[in-house]
Write a structure and sequence with these properties.
six-stranded mixed β-sheet; about 35% helix; about 260 residues; binds adenosine-5'-diphosphate; 12 strands; globular; binds magnesium ion; alpha/beta
Amino acid sequence: MNLLEGQDVTVHFNVHGGVIKAVDLVNFALPQGQIVGIVGESGSGKSTFARVLAGIQIPTSGSVSYLGKPIQDGKITYKGDLRQAVQMVFQDPYGSLNPRMRIIKAVAEAVRQHQNVEKAEAKEIAQKLLESMGISALDSRKYPSALSGGQRQRASVARALSAQPKILIADEPTSAIDQSAQAQLLGLFNELIKNGLSIVLVSHDLGVIRYLSDYVYVMKDGKFVEEGKTEEIFNNPKEEYTKKLISSIPGHKSH
Ligand SMILES: Nc1ncnc2c1ncn2[C@@H]1O[C@H](COP(=O)(O)OP(=O)(O)O)[C@@H](O)[C@H]1O
Ligand SMILES: [Mg+2]
């Protein structure tokens, strides 16, 4: 059984003068232990769909299920134990890190929020999480503004992991950081998969998607126009749109 599934998910936004179909009848599956990528140009609906999976955005129609059960129960999304199961990280980690709080404290508070532990133990757990994300004890005592973009992004992943999630939804996690920081983050994602996490990776960057994903959905104008195993998508794209995206990868040679 798939860990997470989306069935006919549709999101309409009413804006004056009309309706935007940001997500239009999308079907999606995240099998246990995999990284599934969603790729597409800016404005194609990736973030909106990711927010539906995370339970932040209520779909206009369609549904999401976790291990076969709808995540929506009346007005409540991800009830009870499920609340921690799915965590999201964003392109701009400033959003999830309080600028006036040292990193270690921010993560320790998140640990306390999700795990039933005393302050001192929460701090220890936080320190371990941060270290596993490559942030030293010294750096973890800094404020977010004193960290590099890559460190900040890894700290926000550490904060998300404090909930001991089963699924991480990462929306453009590498977009705001430089190449070497990207490589480091991608390596850490691979480690997380080995430890049993499943990941939804949203990116407009095909290089990132290709490197990490087992399976890829290609999104355009709110729809998935193509999907398949990563190597199939990249070696033998069927849709013109996918071919165009691939040929726009820097360093790509067309033959
Ligand atoms: N809260 C909102 N209100 C109105 N329109 C929105 C809202 N959020 C997103 N959109 C629109 O939905 C479409 C998809 O946006 P988004 O999901 O952010 O795409 P992506 O992440 O692929 O860049 C865009 O046309 C965007 O302007
Ligand atoms: Mg987006």
